[in-house]
Amino acid sequence: MSDMRVYTRTGDDGQTGLFGGPRVSKDDPRLEAYGTVDELNSTIGVASAFLEHEDLRGWLQIVQSDLFDVGGELATPDVEERIRKGQPVGPRVTDEDVTKLEGWIDAMDEELQPLTRFILPGGTPASAHLHVARTVCRRAERRVLTLSHTTEVASTLGRYLNRLSDCLFTMARVANARAGVAEPEWLGREERQG
Q1: Which of 4, 125, 20, 128 lies closest to 72, judged by CA?
Q2: Is 43 helix (H, G, I), strand (E, B) or coil?
């Protein structure tokens, strides 16, 4: 039998420990930020389960590992100070990771017709789930921004999440295009009533 248990009972009082740091309330802005990144990671896992395309699933698996790094960085207080002191910190997302997302977006854009109207989330189940992931990604970006108002947060995290939401949007469009499913389009009020 393993000595590792899922439950520790240490959080029953509404507090949790940060990596190498103090215990804080579970509704602390830092926990809101990395908790939303964890939610995003899970949502991407669901979207990936609906995708039939190996290349897109492979990219999402890389993203999920990146998000683990994002969450770890957010769970570590005073990252820059720890680095200056030679204390351990986990892996961190970099500008190269942002550039990687941009490359994927550019590659996917080549498969798509230019947008001429706003589109609605939907189409295939994979596309719909990717749109949900996109909205959770935007919320994660907002939570990281909120945290940055009270503590030092690497600007790379916001750039990565911003670009990731664009990537998920584009991937949702590709999922529909490859399935031959038309993207649901937003209709103006006059069109809806006509």
Answers
A1: 20
A2: helix
State residue 22's pLDDT score. Answer: 67
What distances in angstroms separate CA 21 from CA 16, 62, 74, 79, 106, one per listed residue?
10, 28, 12, 11, 40
**C-alpha to C-alpha distances, 72 to 21, 101, 183, 186, nearest whole angstrom:** 13, 20, 36, 38
Nearby residues of 35 by Cβ (< 8 Å), 6 or more positions away = none
User: Which two three-digit tokens encode residue 121?
Assistant: 């989330």
Write the pLDDT tens digit of every residue in 129-160.
999 999 999 999 999 999 999 988 989 999 99
Return the closest-CA partner of residue 67 out of 102, 45, 37, 103. Answer: 37
Q: Which two tokens stand for residue 69?
A: 């790094």
SS3 157: helix
The domain 25-112+120-179 is placed in CATH, from the list 1.10.10.10, 3.90.79.10, 1.20.1200.10, 1.10.645.10, at 1.20.1200.10
Whole-model pTM?
Answer: 0.86
